[in-house]
Amino acid sequence: MQFTKEQVNSYNENGFLFLENYFSKTEIDYIITQIPSLLSEDTPRRILENNGAVRSILAPNTTNKVFQRLLQLSKLVKPSMQLLGSEVYVYQYKINVKAALEGDKWDWHQDFLYWHKEDGMPRSQALSVAIFLQEANDFNGPLLFIPGSHKEGMVDLNVRKKYLNNPLWTATFSADLKYEVDKSFFERLLNKYEIFAAKGAAGSVLFFDSNVFHGSTNNMSAKDRTNILITYNSLENAPPTAKNPRLEFIASLNCNSVISMPDNFLFEDVV
Ligand code: SIN
Ligand code: MN
User: Fold this and answer.
1) Count of domains in the chain?
2) What atom in ligand 1 is closest to the CA of residue 128?
3) Disulfide engineering: 103 pairs with which of 51, 172, 219, 222, CB 3.0-4.6 Å?
């Protein structure tokens, strides 16, 4: 499947494209059956909130076949190739839980700043797809975007003081993100552009540019707001083998082109 010209124009203009009902209820329900076992794995790929709730699971495809097949679905791979203008590989893959009452914020950020600074990704020729496993609403910390902000290019931010002498990679996934929001810069940015809250039913999907500013508040509701985030990078944009690469489950070193499969591949092992 390919996006229409209007969809591509909208993505280029806003830095994201929001598509409701992109996944069916049957698909979402099937993916959700996999979540409890993934959350219960005791692994360094599981990141916790300060209060102990699960915040993220990195690289869920390493232990779960449904998540491996999901990244290959044509409706994700083909539009990503179309928007990036090349073949793609999966650079990063995570589940963000934003647990009921406990899930914390994600500060405003551009993904590319992290991938460039931490991993040496050369250009911003990468995008992420967010797949909503639950409804995102006013109360559970929906993804917020600053439409058009990708046009500012990568904005260099300072490392938050408390991380200056702390090289731990976990700072790049915590509620206090490693690179600090500069208040005066954001005042200018937010006066120039409006905030868009991506609210919608389970099955909604967002394709978003690696330079668009986004974030989310904490979850004040009694239900989780679980999103899957798959980052596709252009095959032409793999970071050079860095001196100090981040762990494989954060920034994949497997730069093989994703082989697109028909969308019913998700259910391959359902009898
Ligand atoms: C992200 O920026 O990676 C995720 C933000 C969110 O889950 O709200
Ligand atoms: Mn992000």
Assistant:
1) 1
2) 3
3) 219
